[in-house]
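[SOLVED] Need 3D model of a two-part complex

Original post:
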Amino acid sequence: MATKKDKVDVVTVGVGWTGGIIAAELTKAGFNVVGLERGEDRSTEDFQMIHDEYRYDIRHGLMQDASRETISFRNNPDELALPMRQLGSFLPGSGVGGAGVHWNGQTWRFLPYDFQIKSMTDEKYGQKLGDEYTYQDWGITYDELEPYFYKFEQTAGISGEENPKGAPRKNGYPTPPMKSTPILNLFKEATKNMGLNPFQMPSANLSENYENPDGQTIAQCQYCGFCERFGCEYGAKSSPNVTVIPTAKKTGKFELRTHSEVVEVIQEGGKATGVRYVDVYSGEEFIQPADVVVLTSYVLNNTRLLLQSNIGQPYNHKTGEGVIGKNYCYQILPGAAGFFEEKKFNTFMGAGSLGASVDDYNGDNFDHSDLDFIHGGSISITQTGRRPIGSNVTPSGTPSWGPEFKKATLKYHNRTLNVGSQGASIPHRNNYMDLDPTYTDFYGNPLLRLTYDFTEQDRKLHKHISGVCKDIMSEMGADIIEEASMDEHYDIVPYQTTHNTGGVIMGGDSETSAVNNYLQMWDSESLFVVGASAFAHNGGYNPTGTVGALAYRAADGIQKYLKQGGGALVKSKSKSSLT
Amino acid sequence: MADEHTHKTDESRRQFLKNSGYFAGGLVGGGILGSVIGWQVDDNAETKGQNQDGNQGGKQDYNRALKFFKNRAAFERLGAATERIFPEDDNGPGAIALGVPYFIDHELAGEYGNNEKVYMKGPFREGTEFQGFQSRLKRKEIFMQGLMAIEKESQNEFNDSFINLEAEQQDQILSRFAKDEVKLKGVKASTFFGLLREATLAGAYSDPLYGGNTNMDGWRMKNFPGSKMSYIEEIESEDFVEMEPSALYDHLH
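Solution:
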């Protein structure tokens, strides 16, 4: 029998960027918030031994424990899904701060085109892709989101400079761009020569010491090269742990409960009234009642908790009906590697978002009239700190072990550069999430089942953008250039990116989306589902900037909801079960 | 018979040393294990650039014992296999001199070998090549089985122990595992070989605290300075910056 706790105004499931933002904003507005986090508490002082590639990068020290909880996976609906027995393709975080601890910090605003992708594409080109591609507008415009983007950038202190092809900004970045380096300069010169528009990548590794509007301080980045998959021992990478979580704590209205794993959202009379969770140490069950329940537990768990709790209509890929689990997207990663025989670069130095980019091939910044795909991607060079276990690059044709392998990996370790793109991922009818019929987690609940493969759209985008990357690498003067190619199918094994999106998507119509533009569920007015789960497709950038903006938007929505005493904040275009 | 046996052992040992690249270096004294795998290597005047007072260089390095393997033969075989994956060459030490076999032994005894963070619930099915690791076996069981199969293959193919084979012959055996031309129970031979390869590289390049990367020589070969606190002074440098590496040890002491 679960023990019932005292009711609070708001409970969040997970305490990373999104849970932290909700907690900070709602407690500042005077509401009581409880944050339930399955993992441990941690912050800057827990990262003193962080410069350990084996422990944190190779053995995934900060990541979700797959022995307790994972997903099952198959490439298409006709296959048998099998469990992802160890982490590989993507790395969900665990513990306070979530993936916001081990992210690189590349912080972008999605383009205006992203939010109105269907209407803008149709208007300019007519129907570009077949009906099996379920891309749709997000139910909000860039202009409506612009202030929330800025709010997130101010909280995180983002360092950056003007992007001539990016989304228009009303304000500059809170801090100036990071230092440029010979690697970045080579890219900038080459792309300039090609008539493109290079700029320094917007970064959450800060160029200088900074105090955010909430009074939290973030230190200057030291370019130590241990960012991606690591926490920052200087507090120089913006994370929830050094910004929104201490802000929430400072109000005295936030209670953080760690080792508390939520297993069910409780729904009564068409409304979420609280959550059931397990104390991971004692095994005891508790119910935390709340006026507002906010799912802030990453794309995969947001989707799974709704399915597990029977909230919202599960997506059916055969009929196209239902919304929960729909429009799962990933990130398409075109690129080109360049090997330099005569030049050695300081690739071991760097920072997670030390980079230079061009946006000339992102969104609809280039004409697609004669192309048979939509969208594109930002193209960047980064200097994130190359490490010796994980990186053993050789020109293709080199054996993967033995004397030649050793020789080549030593030679090229500091003589190889990569130009790569965060390519947009467009949803497809057969790419979705539901519950696995066979495999269960530590608590006996069904695993989330992922059905995903690359599409024709993905392949065409990949080929086109990889060609551009190859041209850039050629202009940069590499001696050997190798264009990236796509595997026959999406493979769950090699690390690609932790940019999973969709499953609880936002939109203007309750028939085709799960949440409105405040991320309030159409089918449960007291339930807000926050994160990249709301993305109707994935854009041509790293997602966190847009996740942060949506979280601030949701925080506004929750305040409105609590102040007005309930009700739907947006009216659906078609009839909603609420109206 | 006794003489013959001794003779064979000496030959084998010489072959092993030759394969390992130590023969030409004139390494003397000690048993095979003592001289080739282990701290005594550090006594060798030919071993260049090693700090005898480093955190693993001292003679009293009690970490260099076995906590997973139960007998020398399997451990030697492991060492010989890792040495073919990452051999000694003009650039510097190979897997054995870097302590990689100790690294793997220690890892197999702990979280890694016991699959503590791997989802191990059944049913177990083979799956497609895009669905990843599906074995019911723990990594420590895969290594034990794989190393036994290496010996069996060597006996079948060359009528001799793996550690006695010429380098080319050893490569031939290992290639058969890499290409799935050998059958193991409950796991593909290529999965075992992949684990062996990854563990070898991890042992060569992880922080010396794990027992490999002796004296940070793996890092030196790759011009990787290890665990520096800051590059803010060097990040804009036009030239390649070479510096002495440092390890996590320095963060605590």
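Edit: Chain B touches chain A through 63 residues (CB under 8 Å).
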